[in-house]
Amino acid sequence: MSKHSALLIIAVCINVVFFTLAAIFLYWLSWQVLKDEKMAFRAAILFCINPAGVFMTAAYTESTFAMVGFLAMYLLEKKHPVVSALIFMLSTATRSNGLVSCGFILYFVMKNNFRKLFAVYNAKQLKTICVTLLSMIAELLLSLVCVVLIVLPFLLFQYFAYVKCCTYNANFGFFQIQPLSQAQNEQTGDEDFNEFGNTPDRSTPQLFEFPAWCNNTPPLIYSHIQEKYWNVGLFRYYEIKQIPNFILAVPMVTLCCFAIWKYFGRRWNYIKYLGLLPRKVKKDSKSDEFLTGFYGDDVFVYIVHMAALMVFNVLVVNVQIVTRFIASSCPVIYWFAAAMTTSSVNHQKSTNRNQGQQTLFQKVVSNEVVQQVMNFKGNNRKTNLIIGYFLLYNVVGITMHCNFLPWT
């Protein structure tokens, strides 16, 4: 076995473990947010057959990002912001879109402080007011520390690239940065390698030409690579030749839009105040009907998170990656899929009778999602569309990706 093959096998094994852990963490998070164990389990099962399944096991970072992201969200829901920020920091180190996680920290702090403001308004004792205000200031300072932690890996990498490519100094803290030699540069056969600091000799500054992006403000190598090599930019992907890639993205974009529309339609009276008003003064006459499930109060911030990522993906980056982009980042897409497919199941009574005497295999086969797959003709159209989409993209994705054909 070659070294390359061994590395691929190791990468797949690691990703399978991380994918499994991501499903477990999603189950914990779903139960915490939805307050519905059955729907939480269903969301985790749907995650296991998500449309970007091939990227969860191949040598990609999607499963790692999903694992640390779901765990960090769960810890934040459990009121552990600092530990959550440390885990979010790992997600930013894994993928740059982890930067969006700062929004979770800021929203939760803002929500808590708004609730405390109402407490201050209703308070009659000066001591209570002072303690509450000091608590609010402490939370704001703590949130700033958490945001810095989340952004830190991204900034460190940009600084590393800047030192390597845009200065005569080859030192990065305690580490010595070694650029590629001229011989290695010529061996690659890629003229653009010289752009990233691979010069013949740093000891001769007169022969050293800094790449153009070093003069940008700010000088971010990430933005330069995205724009030059991946054609990332507002509407830059909107070309006739990219129509097939837009078609690949249609199912996930449609599912996201439908989830946003359904939640906003049912919870507008809650959303228009950004979920910041305490329940006892919240102007939502039907608020008590939405304590659990997909339409719960706590789902709002995850809806906004998904909407932001979807809009950014459709307008700015390569649109076909929206499937794995959303599938590895947004738990709410699984909550919506679980909510939309639960009501059509009529198998629960028959599967619960002797559940305690069932073998492990029987318990796996008897779960609702497997039953719906096995009884495909007995489901309603909505359920078949969602589960059919998940399964189809799994099968086609494996076939296309493993044969080096273009996929999401």
Account of the protein in words:
A two-stranded antiparallel ribbon has the order 1-2. Helix 1 (3-34) runs parallel beside helix 4. The chain is built from 17 helices and two strands. The protein has helices at residues 3-34, 37-48, 53-57, 62-77, 81-94, 102-122, 126-166, 182-188, 221-230, 243-271, 300-315, 322-327, 332-342, 348-352, 360-365, 368-374, 381-402; strands at 171-172, 175-176. It is mainly α and 408 residues long. The longest helix has 41 residues, at 126-166. The protein starts with a helix and ends in a 6-residue tail after the last helix. Mean pLDDT is 82; it is low at 180-193, 196-201 and 344-355. The chain is 64% helix and 1% strand.
Strand order of the largest sheet: 1-2
Report mean pLDDT, rounded to a whole number: 82
Work out the number of β strands: 2
Query: Percent helix among the residues?
Result: 55-70%
The poorly predicted ranges are 180-193, 196-201, 344-355
Radius of gyration: 25 Å
State the shape.
globular
Number of helices: 17
Taking the sheet with the most strands, its summary is: 2 strands, antiparallel
Q: List the helices and strands in order.
A: HHHHHHHEEHHHHHHHHHH
* End-to-end C-alpha gap: 30 Å
> Into which percentage range does the β-strand content fall?
under 5%
Structural class assignment: mainly alpha
